[in-house]
Design a protein that fits this description.
The protein is an alpha+beta fold. It is about 30% helix and about 30% strand. The longest helix is centred in the last third of the chain and has 16 residues. This is THUMP domain-containing protein.
């Protein structure tokens, strides 16, 4: 991943794309191709048919890439929904990419949530972490502890209500290696295949 840490601005948007882990495309008549190669090809095929500028960056994990682009990720997700894909599992529009210490992640989530979520709306937290969890200043935080900590902070500091189901907003945390992607979005803004 690039060394720069960037918060989403008006000119550049970031989409995180996760590929399926099994990579068995024999049933589709495709042999000898890696899942990430097929997934990148699917992204390129979907976006080449648009006027969008885009740049795909591999993460530290073989099954995750980020796509920087000059169009709203909602347009890209709609394009991916219309495109036949076999390698893409999930796409999430990231609001920011921060260094992975848990303190940085929580600080950024509080800022984003205060800007996007109204007081009468609910949220849930979803955490996609590799290995044991995110590193804090003093320890490693498991996904469950991180979800509880973020939910508590949002309730205490912003007076927002946590709902596990039928929620207005999803706070999505995606580990990208040394960096962490954060999304605060409506459920229909995330692509699940």
């Amino acid at each position: 991943m690039n060394n720069k840490k960037s918060e989403k601005n008006v000119d550049c948007f970031v989409l995180m794309v996760k590929f399926k882990e099994d990579g068995d495309f024999a049933e589709y008549g495709i042999k000898g191709i890696k899942t990430e190669d097929k997934g990148i090809e699917e992204i390129e095929t979907a976006l080449t048919s648009t006027d969008a500028w885009f740049y795909i960056t591999e993460s530290e994990f073989y099954d995750i890439v980020t796509v920087e682009m000059n169009v709203n990720p909602a347009e890209t997700i709609n394009q991916l929904r219309k495109t036949s894909t076999i390698a893409i599992e999930r796409a999430v529009p990231l609001d920011s990419v921060v260094s992975s210490p848990v303190e940085s992640v929580i600080k950024d989530i509080l800022k984003l949530a205060s800007q996007k979520i109204d007081k009468n709306e609910s949220f849930t937290v979803q955490c996609q972490l590799k290995d044991e969890g995110l590193r804090g200043l003093d320890s490693i935080i498991s996904p469950d502890k991180l979800i509880n900590q973020i939910s508590g902070e949002l309730y205490d500091k912003l007076n927002l209500e946590y709902h596990n189901k039928n929620t207005d907003w999803i706070i999505q945390i995606e580990e990208l290696g040394e960096d962490t992607g954060i999304a605060v979005c409506r459920p229909d803004e995330i692509l699940m295949k």
